[in-house]
Amino acid sequence: MTTDLLLEGRHFRRDWSSAYDVGRKAAAQNLADIAAMGAEPTALFVGLGLPGDLPVEWLDDLTAGFRDECTPVGAGVAGGDISRSDRLVLGVTALGTLDGRPPVTRAGARPGDLLAVTGRLGHAAAGLALLQSGHPAPLPSLVDAHRRPRPPYASGPEAARLGATAMADVSDGLVQDVGHIASASGVRVEIDAAAFPVPDDLTEAGSLTGADPVRWILTGGDDHALVATFPAAPPAGWLTVGRVVEGEGVRVSGYDEVEGGWDHFR
Q1: 151 to each of 31, 63, 204, 208, how far by Cα in Å?
Q2: For the chain, does the N or the C end have fewer beta carbons within 10 angstroms?
Q3: Average pLDDT, the chain
């Protein structure tokens, strides 16, 4: 089981994202948490706080977004609650099944393990930066990545079956989420920044906004990629980007310090 909140103005803006986009994103970020424990998603419960002047059509489109994100993984919205609210709020709880297997937590990484990722990294952060800077038109795929993540759902259960020792979805930024694994496991994780290919669209977005695209990859959230540790080479589709050693914390090669990642109360 996992739960998450989306608040208008904090997690989405209605002038940047359609109701359908918000529904897809709200479902995706919860379904990704289930996959990151090695489980198969089964159901969502949705609590909605809605302004009284919200058009019914907006809610219809939101529902369609939930449906289209849940259907491919065999899940659905099983219930919830609605209340009038001055601010648009979504509270989503997701359920999943492990079919008797133990969950993959953040606490299983051991020295000698390899660190690997699968899914997009940095795309959602680049899309947000383009929207904030007023340059969304040249790179619509990145803006879409901010509006609607594409988690690699099937990779979570597969990694669990193939021996992943720890796993998390990248919702708050790779360095920060790897830091959660390091802390829970009592180890140090070394990330090789040079291991990440930088797509051309990220490079172009960096030029438009004056940002380092590698930092988006390292600290950008909301892509909901998966990061995991493995005792040997990771399965196909995963990219090895570091290793687990004795110690504590996270170190990124080539960077004295990597600040960023999302923390509501930093």
Answers
A1: 8, 19, 23, 26
A2: C
A3: 94
The pLDDT > 70 percentage for the chain reads 96
Distance in angstroms (rounded) separating the CA atoms of residues 91 and 86? 15
Domain ranges in the chain are: 2-97, 114-252
Residue 260 confidence class, pLDDT cut points 50, 70, 90: low
Residues in the chain: 266
Kindly report, residue by residue over 104-139, the tens digit of the pLDDT. 999 999 999 999 999 999 999 999 999 999 887 889
Architecture of domain 114-252: Alpha-Beta Complex (3.90)
Q: What is the pLDDT of residue 63?
A: 97
CA separation for the pair 184, 88 (Å, rounded)? 34
Contact 82, 48 (CB under 8 A): yes
- The alpha carbon dihedral of 216, 217, 223, 227 has a sign of negative
Tokens linked to 204: 């172009």
User: Has domain 2-97 been given CATH number 3.30.1330.10?
Assistant: yes
Looking at residue 261, its pLDDT comes to 63
Query: Residues within the annotated binding site for ATP?
Result: 80-81, 106, 171
Binding site for Mg(2+): residue ranges?
3-4, 33, 81, 169, 172
